[in-house]
Amino acid sequence: MRAFVFPGQGAQTIGMGRDLAEAYPEAKAVFDEVDDALGEKLSDLIWNGEQDTLTLTQNAQPALMATSLAVMAALKSEGVGVEAASYVAGHSLGEYSALAAAGAISVADTARLLRARGLAMQEAVPVGVGAMAALLGLDFEAVQAVAEEAAGDEVCQAANDNDPGQVVVSGHKAAVERAVDLAKERGAKRAVLLPVSAPFHCTLMQPAAEAMAVALGGVDIERPSVPLVANVLAASISDPATIRNLLVEQVTGSVRWRESVGYMGEQGVTEVWEVGAGKALSGMIRRINRDITSRAVGTAADVKAAVDALNA
Hints:
Helices cover about 50% and strands about 15% of the residues. By secondary structure, the protein is an alpha/beta fold.
């Protein structure tokens, strides 16, 4: 049994997807559709721009989705559609890519939603007020205890439960800095502040959640052709109304990635394709469940190799 998973913010690089667009007209059409939906040449930024500009949240989110969907278009042209998977899932913004891949939301609507999501998340908290930090070498329960103690009268929450040894905390900058110090005292191998512009996936993002409730209310969501393993549930869903609600909840809720991969393994998934830029999710999956093989599919060569392996 196979799952397709889609990366989140941090995987973006200048040039991603260019070889796909050159090799597959279907992939180029995805980038064109995203450009048209946003009314700007996002593809030019992705392929020829500056990394700092691409990394801005409102650019990175639709850009990563476009690259993932371009990979899906290339795979489909080679005879491998989303139905080759039993589940789709995505890390944070990757959940939108997963839903678009499964036909639940149109590519154009997904691009506009992610642009709105990126702007709303950036505007929810003034720059410098919030922070995020990766705590390595402590399990989720230990990090929750650290976050609770560090919070005081501020916000500090476990935001991303990525794998057994990597949990990200998010909240007010001073509280997150306290969490870094506490984590080191509690035996963390490493505890480092992340180069992000806002404290994602914590209650400080409530204004962004409210903005996304409005934005999502204006788009059609269909039943996905493949069930989605949702970030905030770590279980599969297909009901459009539930999907809409959980996409709102996801803005302030934890990304339960470790549990999501565990769930897919329990359902019988033995192979995962990471569809889009980077290989971060593949590394996490290996650390979560060694019985699941992972494959990163992000370039034209990767598409050919994946299709050849499937048909072997």
